[in-house]
Specification:
Helix content: 25-40%
CATH superfamily: Response regulator
Number of helices: 5
Shape: globular
Distance between the termini: 52 Å
Order of helices and strands: HEEHEEEHEEEHEHE
CATH topology: Rossmann fold
Structural class: alpha/beta
Radius of gyration: 17 Å
CATH class: Alpha Beta
Number of domains: 1
């Protein structure tokens, strides 16, 4: 009985650790996407805004990673949202898995805006997202849709395409 309890607690701790590590890797990827995407120049000097919807861990990890960093001369700011409506003007929007059901609404709300849409849920490139994270054999990878990214007025760099899997 004690042995089963120890095994159960160990598995729970390993699962929690793996989840925490996954959010750190997602945050690192998001920062790399920010650095390796061709952003439309709108002439303003506003902050570079990354909005995270429905994933506090990713938002927290992203804040640590981007602290005192900028994209060009635009300081990076991380915002959090609980809904896909009423979002601040953003350069990147990350849709956490807990809000995956709202993907079509997000894509519709952001149509014709210069924004990189990233999903924590596999397969969302087919729903209009630019990038979707996938977990393959315990490794975080991503799919990308060059057409969806370009539709938002952004340029896709070879660094972004080199490591991801294209979705057509």
């Amino acid at each position: 009985m004690l042995k089963n309890l120890i095994i159960a607690v160990t598995l729970l701790l390993m699962s929690t650790f793996a989840s925490a590590q996954m959010s750190k890797f997602q945050a690192l990827f998001i920062f790399q996407f920010a650095k390796n995407t061709g952003w439309a120049q709108d002439g303003s000097a506003h902050n570079f805004v990354i909005t995270v919807i429905g994933d506090k861990s990713v938002a927290q990890d992203l804040r640590q990673i981007v602290n005192n960093k900028a994209i060009g001369d635009r300081p990076i700011v991380v915002e959090e949202a609980v809904s896909v409506s009423g979002l601040p003007k953003s350069d990147i929007i990350f849709l956490g898995e807990s809000k995956a059901a709202h993907v079509k609404s997000l894509v519709s709300n952001q149509d014709n805006l210069n924004v990189l849409l990233i999903s924590g849920t596999p397969g969302h490139c087919s729903n209009g997202m630019g990038i979707s994270f996938v977990n393959e054999d315990g490794k975080l990878k991503y799919q990308y849709s060059e057409a969806n990214i370009k539709k938002h007025g952004l340029a896709v760099s070879s660094k972004l395409t080199a490591l991801g899997s294209p979705v057509f």
